[in-house]
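PT: before anyone asks, these are the final sequences, not the draft ones from last week. 331 residues across everything. Please model them as a single complex and drop the result in this thread when it's through.
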Amino acid sequence: MSENSIHHIVPKSTYYLIFLALMVGTAITWWVATIDLGPMNNVIMLTIAVTKATLVVLFFMHVKYSNHLTWAVIAGGVFWLLIMLALTMNDYLTRAFLHYG
Amino acid sequence: MSNGAAVAHDPHHNPNLAHHFESMEQQTEASILGMWVFLVTEILFFGGALMAYMVYRSQYPDAFALASSHIAILPGAINTAVLILSSLTMALAVHAAQTGERTKIMFFIVITMILGAAFLGIKAYEYYEKYEEHFIPGMGLQFIFPEPEYQQNAQIFFSIYFVLTGLHALHMIIGLGIMTWMFIWVKNGTITSEYFAPIEISGLYWHFVDIVWIFLFPLLYLIGRHVHHV
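LR: through. Structure below.
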């Protein structure tokens, strides 16, 4: 995998396909937002956004063809982001519990 | 000593290869890795602002949905398409760099820059719209929200809106600067078919800024679409 990462040239057709997928994803996000699905609106919206971001990272940014060290750095960054988001929300969303006692 | 002289006279030695790297491949891999380390700091930088968004939205979900529903979708959706298209042309610029097609690199860099400038133009129009609608909190301006009971909490939404989109626009402006720099480097021959890592890592930056917008568009424009005005 790391052997040919620099010389790996992604065919243009792949880029066009990813571009199309990103546009379709945007259209679906907009369409779904107009329907009231309760909390599912957020879930669908973020699932599409994460999928779109993953496509950009893997193909436009060539990470699919990158070495393991690059993967580790990106995974580390995302993991720390999730720690920040999860632990902070863990605090804010549970503060009201104090009043139930 | 003699070894150093041999390297200097080696006809296969690329002048762009720094002495502490074994090969161009290793040098390119190192610069890509370094760029990713920087982008991770950027992920956490924007993550901090998103954190503020999440905390306040969880406290004031109605105000956020209502405030979001006052933002016109169309300019934001067009901008999303413009940025995705610019990511495609950026990827094609890197592709041209890999295959050593100089004219094509310059062509795609210019198209990417035009799209980036178009994004900023539309963004500026949106900011002007917010000014006209009295949706700018602070700065000595009068903030007027159509639903007076949400007057205060809607200001929190718009503060976060301006911080997030403003920081994103700043990154776009920096991106245009980087692209200008890359255009000059391709034109003056600094970039060659062996040495194109600068194009590749500039592309990583450009795509990252696109990814930030992929999250900002739904989170800022679309969360109140199904809310019925009371």
